């Protein structure tokens, strides 16, 4: 108790400092994140708070500078501010932050260090279990477990201030989850500027690597992680691996109008990611689609390894509990003869759940639609639902997720056709395939690759084609999907990491 209190009090002080500095830098962005966190809470008081905060956003986001920054035109926004006789304190803070963001985006990476054998690897992560439950953290957990299974001593250090920067208090200086140790970078104070934060994070990472006897580093996209890791690796004289899990600029553009791809931020972010890939000792991608993109940026094929999303070997042998599935059906009022169409996903715009809702209106009442997950697009999507057969059940604990997969008779991935969705391979379809559940997915290169080309593929953003695809596979089991999932196991990935670090 006393030990926990000794950690809690400094954490409370640091949390206050972090919140004040993040709000001062970007009141609109900070308030939006807090409002979204409140909205996702089960506490009704916090739900009301989310509505109040959302209303407050409209009052504080009226400056032209906000529009420039949101459009990715940082330099134009700074120039606008410089032309004004007077700017508010908030606008002055935004100018300072975006000057630093431009500096980060133009960062020149240290010279590449060739890959060599490494038995001890330190991972630098954006977030992790148990404080964040997402595709990112679940993959990180599996990567670390796979490396440890390959006789590589792998441990992790999370970014500066995490988990306080997402509004959670750390229970200790480290957490052990499934045999993986996650260490926390919680300094006594939180630097004011982005540049100082990067410098502090680099030094903390260097000190931690020396304590661990690290022989290599590994991090994930985006370039802000790469900056810290590349600088630390240069100081230590050790190689570093860059795992490309997404494409920052495309994800950013997916939430904006089409002209976002012509913005300053898009161009600079693309260039920054390319420099990071070229500077890394080795690059890991999640798919052949992504590998081809990395090669197009100039990285030689021999410096790239595909380590795909995969399923646990144990999951391939998992047998659902009929009583538990019956309980879930009953809780949602689903009759025995009804067909459950499900999506287990982040509820964000590019996932195309609006297409699924429109498809639901085209199918008879025997089809029931269940969306497991939460996100920024949920309020809009719920407002679209005129049918009573669409259930939003929110995010579920990882310990329950397999039960929700087993509830589903047809699994859907109705993603929109965007640059990011054409390249990024989600794990969710593979988990459904492991259970023999037929998958209906948008016909996109990344989705065809991750599901092995053995499922049903439909025209993206076409409710009619999605409805036809669902009706075609309802009541079937896909044995080819099970066979494909068996080829994509984490034990196989363990051998891939072994070849990278141990040769």
Automatic annotation (TrEMBL):
The keyword Transferase applies. One of its GO terms (molecular function) is hexosyltransferase activity. It holds the Pfam family Glyco_trans_1_4. InterPro entries: Glyco_trans_4-like_N (IPR028098), Glycosyltransferase_grp1 (IPR050194). Residues 135-309 form the Glycosyltransferase subfamily 4-like N-terminal domain. This is Glycosyltransferase involved in cell wall biosynthesis. Keywords: Glycosyltransferase, Transferase. The keyword Glycosyltransferase applies. It comes from Corynebacterium renale. One of its GO terms (biological process) is carbohydrate derivative biosynthetic process.
